[in-house]
């Protein structure tokens, strides 16, 4: 499998994985906090983890897919930050640090992807980068916000 194919596969892995996670959260979670504990950290692991893999292992292919010039130094730094976020989410889940830790790591991820989406939108407008993957980023950020904010707020209200 080529790096380009693997990078493209990541675009499908994210929504498919999130769908499975949300289904499992509602199937196994008894209340809002339990559902969010299953959902929140695992969505972060999926999103930040796959971005980390792309940045660290598939740099040139990931850049080409989005329409950005490859910049290994920045990609490595960004990939390590996303890996740290994914690993923290895994710790939050495995060590059961509670709903406030769940909410914190999800909020950090949502802020990153919202700001990143604004950057992608600016690149589309400013530089005319109309690659489909670049244009999808803002929509995905809105979907993540819509998918995660209501359960986050319900979990914190308990």
What does this structure look like?
There is one protein chain. This protein is an all-alpha fold. It has one domain (3-157). It is 87% helix and 0% strand. It has 6 helices and no strands. The chain has helices at residues 3-28, 32-57, 59-66, 72-94, 99-127, 132-157. The longest helix has 29 residues, at 99-127. It is globular, with a radius of gyration of 16 Å. 28% of the residues are buried. The model has no long low-confidence stretch (mean pLDDT 92).
Low-confidence stretches: none
Q: Which geometry do the CA atoms define?
A: globular
Quantity of strands, as a count = 0
- What level of helicity do the residues show? over 70%
């Amino acid at each position: 499998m080529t790096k380009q194919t693997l990078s493209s596969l990541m675009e499908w892995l994210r929504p498919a994985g999130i769908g499975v996670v949300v289904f499992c959260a509602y199937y196994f979670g008894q209340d809002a906090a339990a559902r969010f504990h299953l959902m929140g950290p695992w969505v972060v692991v999926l999103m930040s983890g796959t971005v980390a893999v792309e940045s660290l292992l598939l740099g040139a292919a990931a850049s080409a897919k989005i329409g950005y010039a490859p910049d290994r130094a920045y990609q490595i730094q960004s990939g390590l930050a996303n890996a740290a976020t994914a690993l923290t989410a895994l710790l939050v889940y495995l060590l059961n640090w509670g709903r406030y830790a769940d909410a914190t790591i999800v909020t950090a991820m949502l802020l990153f992807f919202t700001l990143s989406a604004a950057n992608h939108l600016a690149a589309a407008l400013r530089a005319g980068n109309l690659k489909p993957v670049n244009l999808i980023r803002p929509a995905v950020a809105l979907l993540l916000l819509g998918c995660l904010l209501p359960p986050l707020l319900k979990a914190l209200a308990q």
